[in-house]
Amino acid sequence: MSSNAAPQPAPASRQALSVLFSSTFAFTVCFAVWTMFSVLGVPLKTELSLNETQFGLLIATPVLTGSLVRVPLGMLTDRFGGRPVFALVLLVCVPPLYLMAHATSYAQFLVLALFVGLAGGTFSVGTPYVARWFAPERRGFAMGVFGAGNSGSALNMFVAPLVIGAFGWTMLPRAYAALMLGTAVLFWLFSHSDPSHRMSSGTGLRQQLSVLKDPRVWRYCQYYSVVFGGYVALALWITKYYVSEYGFDLTLAAFLAMVFSLPGGVLRALGGWFSDRFGAYVVTWWVMWVCWVCFFLLSYPQTQMTIQTLQGPVSLHIGLNSTVFTILLFVVGVAMAIGKASVFKFISDDYSDNIGAVSGVVGLAGGLGGFILPILFGALLDITGIYSSAFMLLYGTVCVSLVFMHYSYRGTPRAGTELTGTI
Hints:
Elements (H helix, E strand, L loop, with lengths): L13 H21 L2 H12 L3 H17 L1 H11 L1 H11 L1 H7 L5 H11 L6 H9 L4 H12 L4 H16 L3 H20 L14 H4 L6 H13 L1 H18 L3 H17 L1 H11 L1 H19 L4 E7 L2 E7 L3 H29 L4 H30 L4 H20 L15
Antiparallel strand pairs: 1-2
Helix pairs in contact: 1-8, 1-9, 1-10, 1-11, 2-3, 2-14, 3-7, 3-14, 3-19, 4-5, 4-8, 4-19, 5-8, 5-11, 6-7, 6-11, 8-9, 8-19, 9-16, 9-18, 10-15, 13-18, 13-19, 13-20, 14-15, 14-18, 14-19, 15-18, 16-17, 16-18, 17-18, 17-20
């Protein structure tokens, strides 16, 4: 008796699941460390008497290093495997974290932040490492689970204010140094290696980077600079935004910022599932539209108007209160979580044999967005004095992205099918 039922995908092996969960845990810790200045930077801004642009540079500096090392780390992962590369990065971050507790000048913090930023490069290590343990039909979900480690920024926003409030800011880098060391040990104990996942030793740098000739790679870089770069920038900036715009204390501001950061991380797995089911293009397209609407509303500054009427002047106040603002941020966080997964579904479909190099390039573009945007946020605030100018900038980037996506594809996109297009 025959059956027309589609074959069910084989279940993931125990080793594959162990790799997935140990890598996700390690990446969550790395992301918390990578975004530590989103909270630590607030007391340091007062202590070091920084202006808004200097503050933006301080919180963004770790993002720069974490972005620049993504390409070489991705290629090292292709060559040597994810387990040794991931563990090495975890250990290298421990000394600069501990030394940060003893820094006294702005320059010292910037230098140490560069080394701490290596933690952000683990994304381009874990992505190919995890993906190669799963069948193609499960990779979108698996990479989404790993990418949920972005919720480390929410973990930082929960832990850092408590540590700073109880012991002072110098305790935070010490605590993170110990956490990173413990994570390296746990990761090594519960992760695994498979020599078949490594690329041939005869594959040279030029061959690995040959994917840069493909216009699709640059297209995916552009998408990711919005959904990931924008997410990182807001995760770094939003705690201080609550403090400055609404007058909240550090603990409450960080808690509300977590409303954005947490779904922006943990729901990435949902984005992977959507991408497996409906197609990466369709999911990414709708993510951009949701962000466009939200950023339009968030861009409007607090406005006080006086209207002359027959009965005399009438004063009106137009602006978002903290509740509406937080709801809109939550929606943006959900959309960006889904979008981050859908972009990497593109990559896993098109570059299954060279995921490390391609994910490194795309991750670099996203990370550079996360580095540049906080600096621009601070510069715009110094120039205009308008807090919501940060969202005006993000609104503009999404407008460009939607236009770019529209003209990059010919015809009407179908679910699960990306049509041929050119940049």
